Amino acid sequence: MSIKINLGTWNSVFAVPSEVVDNGLKFADGVKLKVLLCVLRNSGKDLTAEEISACTGVNETDIPEALEYWVSIGILHKDSDKYTPASEDSLSSDSKDFAVDLSDSKHKQIHKETALEISNDVEIQKKRFTVTRPQKPDYFFTSQQLAVDEELKILVGEAQSALGKTLSNSDISTLLMLKDTCGLAVDVILMLIQYCVSIDKGNMRAIEKIGVGWADEGINSLEAADAKIRRIKQMNANFSKVSSAFGINNTGSPTKKQLEYSNKWIEDWKFSTEMLREAYERCVDSKGTMKFNYIDGILKRWNSNGIKNLNELSEYEKSPKKQTKRTSSYDIDELEKINTLDDF
Questions:
Q1: Dihedral angle sign, alpha carbons of residues 280, 286, 291, 294
Q2: Is residue 34 within 8 Å of residue 135, measured between CB atoms?
Q3: What is the CATH number of the domain that holds 156?
Q4: pLDDT by residue, tens only, the chain of 344 residues
Q5: For residue 2, is it within any domain?
Q6: CA within 13 Å, CB half, 331
């Protein structure tokens, strides 16, 4: 007697660890899943990045990043530039004997440039997202999620109303990345979109850039987002006061360093418009142009000596103790040589 059971396509199956779904699926986009499934399907083989790319259609430059993600989840183990199962318990016997080799110099460089800075602890990863280059979901994964993810549907609808346009699949992919990969709450993303619209940056590129920055800072509540926006507005207002004192207009977006200078001069050192103007004029008289770092040196010296208005400055400069009263040991001209990149 003989028995034969034909399972059709089920005759050829391979195991997927439960951890992939339990801990890894929420933060995994289509690229990461494609790479992992290809690796698990080819157990017993030594795969190269070229072979994975040919199998999945994923660009070779994205493969190391995807593999690093599964290392962080505990599915794979990395030894030098070889990836193997994380432990004997991680995979079934059908999927234990595989290895991915990225040992050649080309892939070492690719891996170095694109590797995710992901925490080994998944819970920490949910709270704080740090990445050198965010990986957006592909077209098919985005379309699938839009069909089944109610939060994403709401987010897309609200975003379209706020931006006044129909979002493309690429736009929706960005929102999905901010929600699932970066871990931002839907209401936080909507607040971010409203903020970008309010500052005339209602485009998806700006929303993505600022959103990834918020995720990296751990801003994932309405309270934290509101505090961040208030802080940004205050720093911009401080810069506007400085620009007005210096008599400069149409400067464009200030640099991070210029915002920090302005905030320090006004909020920390409490200098008035007239004192800012005086420092500006002295800088121009001495250097022939405006230099933020040189002005900072002047104001730092005045602040160290308790000088807050023009009368105090006049009295200080008339004092015979002027030369001995300086508490700062740095040289403004030397500082100028060091910080030349801080200026306009």
A1: negative
A2: no
A3: 1.10.10
A4: 567 666 666 667 888 888 888 877 776 778 888 889 998 888 878 888 889 988 888 888 888 888 888 888 788 888 877 888 876 544 444 444 566 666 554 444 444 443 334 334 434 444 444 444 567 888 888 888 888 999 999 999 999 999 999 999 889 999 999 999 899 999 999 999 999 999 999 999 999 999 999 999 999 899 999 999 999 999 999 999 999 999 887 666 788 899 999 999 999 999 999 999 999 999 999 999 999 999 999 999 999 999 999 999 999 998 876 655 444 444 555 555 544 444 44
A5: no
A6: 4
Burial class of residue 171, CB neighbours in 10 A (0-12, 13-18, 19+) = buried
Answer with the one of 127, 161, 179 that is the final residue of a domain: 127
Q: How many domains does one find in the chain? A: 3
In a domain, 50, yes or no: yes
In angstroms, the CA 271 to CA 241 distance is 11
Same domain, residue pair 251 and 337? yes
Single residue among 127, 155, 178 that ends a domain in this structure:
127
